[in-house]
Amino acid sequence: VKTVAIFGPTKFTQTSPWQNQNAKLVHLDLACMPCMQKTCPLKHHKCMKDLKPQRVIEEARNLLKNPHL
């Protein structure tokens, strides 16, 4: 199944969709990631707030356009 997996503070390398070769992981590369905390220890939540919907939409469109997945 084609999947767009959105990650904030979690370790996407450990919690990504299991055995799904058709998954596209969308995340930011911030120095504070992954903190694995429910509440942002830095009080800014950038890993969630700065990951804009447009980026997720673009990744989903790219995934849907690729017939080989």
Give a short overview:
The chain is α+β, with helices and mostly antiparallel strands and 69 residues long. The protein has a two-stranded parallel ribbon with strand order 1-2. The chain is built from three helices and two strands; from the N terminus they run βαβαα.
Structure characterization notes:
The protein is α+β, with helices and mostly antiparallel strands. It has one domain. The protein contains 3 helices and 2 strands, in the order E-H-E-H-H. The chain has helices at 12-15, 46-49, 53-65; strands spanning 3-6, 23-26. Strands 1-2 form a two-stranded parallel sheet. It is flat.
Low-confidence stretches: none
**Total of helices:** 3
- Order of helical and strand elements: EHEHH
Task: Indicate the radius of gyration in whole angstroms.
Answer: 13 Å
Count of DSSP E strands? 2
Shape: flat
* Beta-strand content bin: 5-15%
List the strand order in the largest sheet: 1-2
Q: Describe the biggest sheet?
A: 2 strands, parallel
Question: What's the SSE blueprint?
Answer:
Elements: E1 3-6, H1 12-15, E2 23-26, H2 46-49, H3 53-65
Parallel strand pairs: 1-2
Considering the chains and any ligands shown, give keywords for the structure:
69 residues; alpha+beta; two-stranded parallel ribbon
